[in-house]
């Protein structure tokens, strides 16, 4: 078990273990490789090794467009169906197994049993909270959620969530590790369903569905409203800072006084739709019309191409991933 006062590995992390190499684990593998780290991957899929090579090749080609990948060596990537072998010599573990609690709990227990007490284990889980992951007998103090956004090799945000039993030093070690690699980590110190960013996307999507269900606007027009309006601003600044600008010279204090009551009235008018069969049919038909025959592969490739352009633009602005205020 981890002892109190443990100094967790962070600055010296040179080898990362990836547990589960699907959509998210594969993207993580490519990202860590692109940063010159050794990556050891475990998956139960008999074709896992071949699938991983394919995902990694595509993701590395994306990453190469953002910055030259000078240090990548083919031998830095190791795949095995044996968990113990994969965990040998690893300094950090990123768990990306299917979203099933008992499966994750059992894996995390094995992982902490098989790794030294100063190795932090981050889970990519979108829906489980650290306390749930920690409830299966693993060494809870070094388990945190390290939640990425899809595609994890491109999107900078990583939500580092500590549960009540996590050692704050383990959360800090994970935070510093991702910061050093050029990600944009945030610390979440009180666990909440959906962490932080997905709570906000859920709030937005709830109203997007409500607007369609109420016949206020079509699926495509709801998407256009975000893409060509607030979505563009959100890539530049967050909602609080944007309302600071919305207050003119008086900033956020003036905004709250002037338009706060209108915001509160709008909040009271927001809907709480259910995903009934009829609402689901409207959403599916609307999205199919918007996709206009483009396959998931085509839509994903377009998303990633435009994300890369956007990230380049933001990085050109003095490193937009960094916090403006020094910590
Ligand atoms: N898909 C997303 O958009 C997204 C975004 C952020 C976080 N996540 C989280 O990432 C995690 C993985 O999601 P995904 O979308 O990559 O799923 P996925 O189904 O694409 O990949 C899961 C992988 O785990 C492997 N696997 C199955 N059983 C296993 C076991 N016992 N041990 C090890 N590996 C096993 C599968 O073979 C597969 O390769 C989930 O916790 C999910 O919540 C997903």
Quick summary:
The protein has 327 residues and is of the alpha/beta class. It contains 13 helices and 8 strands.
Topology (elements, then pairings):
Layout: E1 15-19, H1 23-34, E2 38-42, H2 48-66, E3 77-80, H3 83-87, E4 92-95, H4 101-114, E5 120-123, H5 130-133, E6 143-148, E7 157-161, H6 168-180, E8 184-188, H7 197-213, H8 219-227, H9 230-234, H10 239-246, H11 251-269, H12 277-291, H13 296-316
Parallel strand pairs: 1-2, 1-4, 2-3, 4-5, 5-6, 7-8
Antiparallel strand pairs: 6-7
Bound molecules: nicotinamide-adenine-dinucleotide.
Q: Classify the fold: give the CATH topology of the largest domain.
A: Rossmann fold
Largest sheet: 8 strands, mixed
Bound molecules: nicotinamide-adenine-dinucleotide
| SS strand fraction | 5-15%
Low-confidence stretches: none
Which secondary-structure class do the elements indicate?
Answer: alpha/beta
Count of beta strands: 8
Distance between termini? 32 Å
- What is the N-to-C succession of helices and strands? EHEHEHEHEHEEHEHHHHHHH
User: What is the total number of structural domains?
Assistant: 2
Structure report:
The chain has helices spanning 23-34, 48-66, 83-87, 101-114, 130-133, 168-180, 197-213, 219-227, 230-234, 239-246, 251-269, 277-291, 296-316; strands spanning 15-19, 38-42, 77-80, 92-95, 120-123, 143-148, 157-161, 184-188. The mean pLDDT is 94. 31% of the residues are buried. It contains 13 helices and eight strands. The protein has 327 residues and is of the alpha/beta class. It has an eight-stranded mixed beta sheet, with helices on both faces. It folds into two domains: 15-188, Rossmann fold (3-Layer(aba) Sandwich); 197-321, N-(1-d-carboxylethyl)-l-norvaline Dehydrogenase, domain 2 (Orthogonal Bundle). Nicotinamide-adenine-dinucleotide is lined by residues 19-25, 42-45, 48, 96-99, 103, 107, 124-126, 147-148, 150. Residues 19-25, 42-45, 48, 96-99, 103, 107, 124-126, 147-148, 150 line the site of nicotinamide-adenine-dinucleotide.
